[in-house]
Amino acid sequence: MTDRIKLLPDVLANQIAAGEVVQRPASVVKELMENAIDAGADNISLILKDGGKLLISVIDNGMGMSPMDARMSFERHATSKLSSVNDLFAIQTMGFRGEALASIAAVAQVEMVTKRAEDEVANRLVIEGNKIITQEAAQAPVGTRITVRNLFYNIPARRTFLKSNDVEKKHAYEEFNRLALAHPEIRFQLIHNDETIHHLEAATLKSRVVSVFRNDISKRLLQVEEVTDKLKIHGLVGTPEQARKTRGDQYLFVNNRFIKSALLNHAIVSAFDKIISSDTFPFYVLFLELDPSSIDVNVHPTKQEIKFDDEHMIYNYLKSAVKHTLSFNLVAPAIDFEKDAQLASAWQNTERSPFVPQHEGGSRPKENYRIPGDFYKENVGRWKDLYENINIDTGHSSQPNQSMVFNSSLNEIDTPAEEENVHAGKYIQLHKSYIIFQVKSGLMIVDQQSAHHRVLFERFYSKTSEAAVFTQTDLFPTEIVLDVIKSDILKSVLNKIIYVGFDIEHTSHNSFIIHGYPSFLEEGTDLATWFDSIIDTVQSEVELDIDFHQIMATTYADNNAVKRGQELKNREMQDMVDQLFACNEPAFDSRGNRCFGIYSLNEIENFLKFK
Ligand code: ADP
Ligand code: MG
């Protein structure tokens, strides 16, 4: 193999944000361990003395360096990882500035022993104050060992600025944890003052998480996994009971790089909204993968902060991915993913995209498009296994495109024959509000109002997210007259309303005419009232993550969902339950109300037990 290290051109060197690489022992730990990972090692040991203040040593079995590379590696802006400006935007390796070793060598006593597989002997270098004092042949296995002693020995002011051994040790462990979590496939050891703190074998992410945190958390971890063409996310979140009073174990990685982002942390935490109390912090270890060209990792010298092209989209994506996991697991706590592989894969392999707004305003062609009818079928798999009594047969008569009309109290013409053949007597309506029926594990109670709300919300959302929506022209256009404030609000969102398939015109100062509406809406939908609630919501909405599309879908569902107190026929109950469980997120409606709950046989037994 030839020498691999090149000096960065000056232009590029200047483009790279300069910065203090070495702040404390933990920064050295991070840089040395990242280099070991970049060198392809699958076995890395970190040895610390006195919190790293006395000694930090990283030993790897990676590719090693040639004698020339070994010398070069201590030059500023010497790197084997980047050679043109373009590379900066597609960074895959951890390091890329070529300044870590040079910076470390400027403020500590450094010894490096390195050997490549093709070399007879290893090479040993001693560097002090950036000068190579010794370079000689040595005996060592393939790989690299870098030992950093007496950090800031030559800058007393910085040295005294370091915290106690315990505090520095904590920071160093933290860096170790981040890298150990990001690379479960690598074997890691951590030794402090001759005591083995960690001995981590190559493992799955879950086992790695369990061995890094050691406490009994394995039973309290929920798996997150979502894939879209732009983004991938996987990892683990703690159950709500796992949430702690102090912020702590929260790890977010972007393209396998640990990052800190208040915004994305907010996205994850807000998925736990109303599930954990607001003064606790959920546990998470999450990995986001996206096109490297859509992020800029060079914003901060220690590379923990990055910029995204589309933060808002990532925010929504993260939040809904975590929400999916929570809502699925909270209503089905008895399911053990590892035991029930089939169920787990049914859940994980669905290539649904979460509710991420895919488009911004603008008008769309008003042609007659066929709307694909498979929305209600694609998610059936994972719920079907769970609730075997729910008939979500493809042959079943509740067609995806057929709208549910709940008009029992109005329509007195009964069709008893048809009523009977569909699981007659299976569903019971309780106090005209709840649907109860038997499922595999016990008794299910569905809240008719929030269930229907969820169904309508998803139908609206998915139909209006399609490439094109067919607009139905209204023979009797609806006129809406508003006050000045409200008409300003409506004007500001007009594009978005047109985008989802409305034909709406701003006629005069505060008057609008709706000529047509998205064709999947039922005839007679009260558009004026609906638009009024949309405007109200936009007006009162202060949360940063609410998008207009969701507001429309939610207010639509608010206005059109069956209410408690309305009597339902057996067939209508069946339709509602079927359609609820074909939803992406059947557990909660878009306002956060639970749609259903299960009383397990155990709970019923305990409840009835003589005490
Ligand atoms: P960077 O990692 O940004 O390239 P560093 O100063 O950390 O800069 O390292 C300089 C160069 O030294 C790296 O590009 C790499 O070629 C080499 N190097 C450093 N550590 C190791 C190691 N543990 N194994 C093999 N090569 C290494
Ligand atoms: Mg490096």
What does this protein look like?
There is one protein chain. The chain is an alpha+beta fold and 611 residues long. 33% of the residues lie in helices and 22% in strands. The chain contains 19 helices and 24 strands. Strands 7-6-5-8-3-2-9-10 form an eight-stranded mixed sheet. A five-stranded mixed sheet has the order 11-12-15-13-14, sandwiched between helices. A four-stranded antiparallel sheet has the order 18-19-20-24. A hairpin with a 6-residue loop joins strand 5 (109-115) and strand 6. The longest helix is centred in the middle third of the chain and has 21 residues, at 311-331. The model is unreliable at 10-19, 332-382 and 388-424 (pLDDT under 50). The structure holds adenosine-5'-diphosphate (ADP) and magnesium ion (MG). Adenosine-5'-diphosphate binds next to helix 2, strand 4 and helix 4.
What are the salient characteristics of this protein?
611 residues, 19 helices, binds adenosine-5'-diphosphate, single chain, alpha+beta, eight-stranded mixed sheet, binds magnesium ion, five-stranded mixed sheet
Spell out the blueprint of helices and strands:
Elements: E1 6-7, H1 10-15, H2 25-38, E2 43-49, E3 55-60, H3 67-72, E4 78-79, H4 100-107, E5 109-115, E6 122-128, E7 131-138, E8 143-149, H5 156-161, H6 165-182, E9 187-192, E10 195-200, H7 205-213, E11 221-227, E12 231-238, E13 250-254, E14 257-259, H8 262-271, E15 284-290, E16 295-296, E17 307-308, H9 311-331, H10 341-348, H11 375-378, H12 380-386, H13 416-421, E18 428-430, E19 434-439, E20 442-447, H14 448-465, E21 471-481, H15 484-499, E22 503-508, E23 511-518, H16 527-540, H17 548-560, H18 570-581, E24 596-600, H19 601-608
Parallel strand pairs: 2-9, 13-15
Antiparallel strand pairs: 1-4, 2-3, 3-8, 5-6, 5-8, 6-7, 9-10, 11-12, 12-15, 13-14, 16-17, 18-19, 19-20, 20-24, 21-23, 22-23
Bound molecules: adenosine-5'-diphosphate and magnesium ion.
The site of adenosine-5'-diphosphate has 25 residues, from α2, β4 and α4.
